[in-house]
Amino acid sequence: MNITRTDSSLYQRAARFVRYLGFSALLLVFTAMIAQAAVDLDVNTTAVAAVKASMQNRHQQLFAHYQSGAVGLASDGFVVVKDASMVPLSQRSALAALVKDENADRVRLYQGIATANGHPEWQGEIQRTFGQRWIDKAQAGWWVQREGQWVKK
Amino acid sequence: MCWDACSASPTVIVKLSSNKCKLLDIITAARRGLRLKRTDLKKHAAARWARDSLWLLAIAGLCSCVTINIYFPAAAAEKAADKVIDEIWQLPASTNPASPPPAVNQAPAP
Question: Rounded to 5 degrees, what angle do the CA atoms A29, A35, A40 make?
């Protein structure tokens, strides 16, 4: 009396093996899909929230400059003084400071999101993504940079 | 002693079956019944299959985690960017900007 697996023919073994392979492949694909779907970037750390609040406040002032065309949205995810002559001479240094602060906050934002997700090296890609999205979401009439060219949206 | 070993567990039977314990095996098989043995075999196959599947699942999971960590999740980044921009610009979630933020104090000279 033998309880070893000698009863299955070569064909049965081959069939079993093929089934096994197919199943493992399916399993692999499903696991990968689940893992992919679960990926989400975390943007809710305290550092990021602080930067967001600061930028939110500043936007009240920047908004008018976007509208007038004094400030434009560059494709690299920063803002630039597009046409300083749109503001009175007395306010130009304030405008420059505003843009400088905004860009400093933006660096902090991109950096914060990258580090919050455990990948500081993603900062550049996050910045590029934001650069595109800022421009996409800009209102009509704002200066934006597309493929190196400045255009009014 | 050999009798005890044979009746102890199916694995022992398997081990002994190739040796000189044929008679004892037959007796034990009779005692347990042939059907039980067949289910035992099936149970073992299922257990092995389950174990192998679990290993595969673990390896596949690990691979996908590594892959995801290496490659930048562009779609997730875009989603995150939209969320952040909507918050900063105080836009209604994922729509085209239509209304300016409530307070715009500074009116630049033309």
Answer: 145
Q: Which of A21, A29, A31 to mutate to test the interface with B (most CBs of B within 10 A)?
A: A31
Q: Tell me which chain A residue has its CA closest to the CA of residue B80.
A: A41
Residues B50 and B84 in one domain: yes
Q: State the complex-level ipTM.
A: 0.77
Within-domain flag for B108: no
Q: Which two tokens stand for residue B8?
A: 């102890």
Question: Is residue B12 in a domain?
Answer: yes
Locus of tokens 């409530």:
B102
Of all residues in chain B, the one with the smallest CA distance to A126 is B77
Q: Domain range holding B58?
A: 42-90
For chain B, what's the residue count? 110
pTM score of the predicted model: 0.59
B48 and B85 assigned to the same domain: yes
Taking only the tens place, the pLDDT of each residue in A130-149 is 999 999 999 999 999 999 89
Split into its structural domains, chain B has a count of 2
